[in-house]
Write a structure and sequence with these properties.
Length: about 170
């Protein structure tokens, strides 16, 4: 039997990252078939003070890796966030999925009561239990950025819907 922490973490991240990969492939194909420069989509944002699509994807991947790693008790893999194309984002998501899927459910045993420290040694340091970290911080952050990717693309005319966002489950 898998840990509830694993069940509410890894499979959820895998489902939505896989769906996001598919949406980004649709976007790239749409841009190509309509002679739209990829940067038009990659640099799109919902509002001027928000991050562009490319950064939203990077942050979603960061949260999937970071949350999973912290709860599993392993080092968070550091990536450079230097993606500039759909192909780069696809590779980032592949690497993120491989990392997350490579974690063992047993690594999450007891993580609900594990202490997670955010921004250690800074004035913004915050200590949370693993349960609170996943339910009230990590998952909402991840969902915000995945949803924003979907919203940016939908706003820019991509014919995607809830099934595309959700992916296979």
């Amino acid at each position: 039997m898998n840990s509830a922490m694993y069940t509410h973490c890894v499979p959820v991240f895998v489902q939505l990252l896989t769906a996001m990969k598919a949406i980004l492939k649709q976007t790239e194909a749409y841009a190509t078939s309509h002679s739209i420069a990829p940067a038009v989509y990659l640099q799109s944002r919902l509002y001027p003070d928000m991050f562009p699509l490319i950064k939203q994807v990077q942050i979603a991947a960061d949260f999937a890796r970071g949350v999973s790693a912290r709860l599993a008790g392993v080092e968070v893999p550091a990536y450079e966030s230097n993606e500039h194309s759909f192909a780069d984002l696809d590779l980032l998501l592949d690497r993120t999925l491989a990392f997350v899927q490579g974690l063992n459910p047993a690594q999450f045993d007891g993580s609900e009561s594990k202490e997670i420290i955010l921004r250690p040694g800074t004035p913004k340091e915050k200590k949370l239990t693993g349960q609170v970290y996943l339910a009230n911080y990590g998952s909402p952050q991840f969902f915000f950025h995945v949803t924003t990717v979907y919203a940016i693309l939908r706003h820019n005319g991509l014919a995607i819907g809830k099934r595309d966002y959700m992916g296979a489950y």
